[in-house]
Amino acid sequence: MERRTPIRLETIPIEPHRSAALPFIGEYFACAGAGRMGRFSAMSQQGANAPKILPTHTPELFDAAVKRAAALLRAGEVVALPTETVYGLAANALDARAVAKIFEAKGRPAHNPIIVHVASLEMARRCASQWPEAAGRLAASFWPGPLTLVLAKAADIPDIVTAGGPTVGIRWPGHPLMQAVIRETGFPLAAPSANPSGQVSPTNAEHVRRLLGTRVPLIVDGGQSQVGIESTVIDLTTQPPRVLRPGMIHEGSLVAALGSEVVGPGASQFVAGDRLAADSPLTPALSTDLRNSSREAFARGRGEGARRAALRSPGQLEKHYSPRARVLVLEWSGTAALLEQLAQRGIPEAECQVVAHSRIPAAERFAGVSVIPHDAEAFARALYAEFHRCDEAGARFVVIEAVPERPEWRGVADRLMRAAVGGESESLNR
């Protein structure tokens, strides 16, 4: 592989499609020469059979996109829509045949449930057979936003949505385009990430086009997803409530909203009054909980010769969110230490794309070096876009600097752990 030699470090703004629906927030950092994150042209390289991509950067275009998406959804089709977490592949959540098209387009395992998206509390209540006080507290604190509540499902929710299980994940997304489409249709939308199952989730319209191509008839371009990873999922059908998938709303925030204990992934328990501030490190045992919860869920879903058990939440399969390249999550003190680790593993440094946040290695030794700010929200916002960039660059290896072991990083750590299954992640947290 030809080496590219960056000559300086510079700040590169993410240039998403600037939708009137969702203003741009934040910046992305990369080494010059390591592959710039430029503006994606929604209609570039479109073939005759390519999906239609609708812009939304003026009120008129926004309204037209909402009406077109709603018309297709009413007709039982799937549509790729933006949310603040990642782009979703949406269908009418009350139409089993429409939802089946999601599974077909994604190649999604039948035992992996789909989150139902709503645009009001009233709609959320109609999707659940019970609405406990805890649901009201969390909805008041975090909705619209990146939090999914797992509740006993209503009879109207088809079994295909819940993988045959008795519970359903419900979320009120914060993206105004997604909200507008749900209100226009009048029904909730089942919407997992708009990508082939197990691969990296898309955070802009161009990612969806590359990943799904002709498998989706319409993509609505609502700009760059501003959270960047999937929602936190909390199961309210158990006592105490249990986090099934970590996200950017961490356990400490959930405890504060509920005023009671919450069980984290694995067996970790958090109670009201626990110090889970941003500067409070997690106990050492918690760094293994993400792996343990993943393996427990995977074992439940795998079923040795028996019928696969339904998962209560997506994002619990052991390998998930993975680019084509092999992912390694490592920590290093400097360039020499990183080179030594790669040499011990027989990995040529010239074939590695490195993603760092604190200890930036010498860029000339690698295929590319990108730097994401040492901030959990910024890292989450840029992570999947960086995985997509590495895939487009044809990277064989993606080396990620291990992230801090603090509550606000837990969702990022979970995504890195699952992306690195089959690679290496012996130092996932530090």
Query: What fraction, in percent, of the residue positions are helical?
Result: 25-40%
Strand order of the largest sheet: 4-5-9-6-8-7-11-12
Largest sheet: 8 strands, mixed
Please tell me the overall pLDDT. Answer: 82
Strand coverage percent:
15-25%
Number of separate strands: 18
Q: How many distinct folded domains?
A: 3
Describe what this molecule looks like in 3D:
- With 430 residues, the chain is an alpha/beta fold.
- It folds into three domains: 9-38 and 317-419, Threonylcarbamoyl-AMP synthase, C-terminal domain (Rossmann fold), CATH 3.40.50; 52-220, DHBP synthase (Alpha-Beta Complex), CATH 3.90.870.10; 238-302, no CATH class.
- Helices cover 28% and strands 16% of the residues.
- The chain is built from eleven helices and 18 strands.
- It has helices at 59-74, 96-106, 121-127, 133-142, 176-185, 205-212, 251-258, 289-302, 335-344, 376-392, 410-419, and strands spanning 9-12, 28-31, 52-54, 79-81, 88-92, 116-117, 147-152, 167-171, 189-190, 218-220, 232-235, 242-245, 262-263, 269-270, 326-330, 352-356, 368-371, 397-401.
- The strands form four sheets. Strands 4-5-9-6-8-7-11-12 form an eight-stranded mixed beta sheet, with helices on both faces. It has a six-stranded mixed beta sheet with strand order 1-2-17-16-18-15, with helices on one face.
- α1 crosses α5 (176-185).
- The two termini are 32 Å apart.
- 53% of the residues are buried.
- Residues 1-46, 271-291, 293-307 and 425-430 have low confidence and may be disordered.
Task: Considering the chains and any ligands shown, give keywords for the structure.
single chain; 430 residues; alpha/beta; Rossmann fold; DHBP synthase; 3 domains; eight-stranded mixed beta sheet; six-stranded mixed beta sheet; 11 helices; 28% helix; disordered N terminus
